[in-house]
Amino acid sequence: MLPGTQEQEAAGRNKGSRAAILDAAERAFAELGYGGASIRAIARDAKVNQAMVHYYYQNKDQLFSAVIERRAGEINARRDAALDQLFQNGTPTLETLVEALLRPTIEIGHDDTRGGAAYARLIASFNNAADERSCRVTAENYDPIALRSIDAIRRVLPDLDRAATVRGYLFAISVALSVMAKTGRATRLSDGLLDDFDTEETVASAVAFACAGIRALAKTKVNKSP
Amino acid sequence: MLPGTQEQEAAGRNKGSRAAILDAAERAFAELGYGGASIRAIARDAKVNQAMVHYYYQNKDQLFSAVIERRAGEINARRDAALDQLFQNGTPTLETLVEALLRPTIEIGHDDTRGGAAYARLIASFNNAADERSCRVTAENYDPIALRSIDAIRRVLPDLDRAATVRGYLFAISVALSVMAKTGRATRLSDGLLDDFDTEETVASAVAFACAGIRALAKTKVNKSP
DNA sequence: GTCTATAGTTCGATAGAC
DNA sequence: GTCTATCGAACTATAGAC
Questions:
Q1: Nucleotide minimizing C1' to CA distance for residue A63
Q2: Are A189 and B174 in contact (CB < 8 Å)?
Q3: pTM here?
Q4: Which range (A74-78, B22-26, B27-31, B144-148) has the least confidence?
Q5: How far is CA A180 from CA A59, A91, A162, B128, B202, in A?
Q6: Do B190 and B146 have their domain in common?
Q7: What's the rounded Cα separation, in Å, for the pair A53 and B120?
Q8: Are residues B103 and B160 part of one domain?
């Protein structure tokens, strides 16, 4: 009976260790990449014995998946709730919808009190990665909410065909991810005029940019060449 | 006298080995990340002795830098030439300018005859990375052309203040990078309506999206909150 | 659940012959 | 420039005592 594949242990006695391992792994994967992170260093950082990491998460690959699943669950729950609420009172504007999709993503990345910044760096770097593990994890954790979001955009903008909506959604997400990982580049290139840590400005800019971009795709051919 | 820090050796006899190492390293870093790639495997793939990698590039970090510099030099040369030409005959449209900036990036990623696809995956994944090495390499290789591009956008759209232009440029680049690494996600989410490998469609979509987004930033406050 | 100990690999880097 | 040989360190994962 392996705890990693079962529901949480009854009393929740060692929830601290499990979570501490995930926190440390999140930081390590974000900072060093999958290959650069080591279970030894993660265990040391989490202040648990190295063997405990294998006891809870079996191996490095499953530990990585667990790190992603925890945060993706939270982001997707917030997005789902926002979508449900938005369409209760008729059809929202594109701006309202896109903000509902992007804000949870950006906010988690900017909320360092719960360690979200490390996850932000992590997801921002593996979103565009093409290796097998990154693609698998993205598909498993983010494809369902992506499809639901794409449907929602189509209901708001019926003129957009399905192909253009998918492109628009993927572009919007990549815009949001670019402000999620606070690399300091915006501040550097703007001589301090911009602030990577200003959540409200980054959300407003990303939403404005993405909405205009999505609308523009209606006028462009977005389809396979023959 | 270390060959890695000097100009190419006179006769160019072993240019094959040097380039083969870079090609193999590019593939390895793209596929496995910096930490996951190993010099041993790179040497094997390049069909050279492991010690030769150290002889030419000293260590893993400098090998990584060399991989980026080679491609960045090519992309930036094409972008520079395009910028020079564009402004020779007055002021271009925003669409022309943005296409000149994004097309070299996207095309190199789609041109697999010269191994550009591996570099595409590599740059797409480390662009948003916040670790020290990624930031250093990005700043060294891409900040100069970024500043020049930002100035060019401002000349085309004088209404845009500097902060908004920097945001717009960074968003546009992240849009381009999202279609550079062909992860197959667009095809999957669109049930085959979209094709990650269709260079002309991806360029047209990215340019249309980015131009509309940049223009929209003129109407939004893009500045640090007080 | 927690720990020690260790098997079995693989790694980056260098020394030194040719 | 090219190669062999190797050092020293780090790694994942497991076995087994408590």
A1: D12
A2: no
A3: 0.93
A4: A74-78
A5: 28, 28, 27, 9, 24
A6: yes
A7: 34
A8: yes
